[in-house]
Amino acid sequence: MGNSRLILALDVYELKKALEIAESTAEYLWAVKVNWPLIIGSGLEIITELKERTGLPVIADLKLADIPNTNRLIASKVFEAGADYIIAHGFVGRDSVKAVMELGKTIIVVEMSHPGAEEFIQPVTDRLIELANELGPFGVIAPATRPERVRYTRSKLMPGIKVITPGVGVQGGSAREALNAGADYIIVGRAIYESENPGKAAKRIYEEIGG
Ligand code: NUP
């Protein structure tokens, strides 16, 4: 749905299950995010298939963190498969990020949602935000588990760069709080795909955040 701000993190292995969940939730989503579990379990073709079945944008959450050439080799195949966005780490440096951005729309990780992110990533978030401001990616990843960090990131980030926040639901973050803190999109995985009725769960979150 074009006006939705909900992204489904489809972290299941099986192709059939993935397609079922995607189809039953599609009307409440802005995009579907695939990560390594699904790509390992179902192959890269799952991206093409998801796009065909749902008509939604697909985000490939590979968190690329390699030298420019390897990032380029991976990203070119993933964009070729139909991914609309790729998530890349910023901490490896601007050359590695640029290699992805030259091939397609990119989302840069500037902070993560788990407790361990405070160890090494949070101390360099300011510099990662500067990097994003310099390169102008589609968006950045900030933690819904720490709404104050979402607010901080939004305040330092150039307008126009989207703030995308995972950590809603099982990791403890609230969709409303993340959006109130300035997030443009929220990412929800287990709270939807582990639910008995993923369609209903997605609808509930969609309605909670006001469509
Ligand atoms: O900081 C991050 N936290 C995070 O959870 C960056 C991410 N990309 N993710 C991803 O979002 C994570 O890998 C998973 O695919 C999804 C969150 O899933 P869940 O905790 O809602 O099940």
TrEMBL record:
Query: PROSITE patterns given for it?
Result: OMPDECASE
Q: Cite the binding residues for substrate.
A: 11, 33, 61-70, 113, 166-176, 189-190
Identify the EC number(s): 4.1.1.23
Catalytic activity field:
orotidine 5'-phosphate + H(+) = UMP + CO2
Any single GO CC term annotated in Swiss-Prot or TrEMBL for this entry: cytosol
Domain of life the protein comes from: Archaea
Family under the similarity heading:
Belongs to the OMP decarboxylase family. Type 1 subfamily.
Q: How does it assemble?
A: Homodimer.
What is its biological role?
Catalyzes the decarboxylation of orotidine 5'-monophosphate (OMP) to uridine 5'-monophosphate (UMP).
What name does this protein carry?
A: Orotidine 5'-phosphate decarboxylase
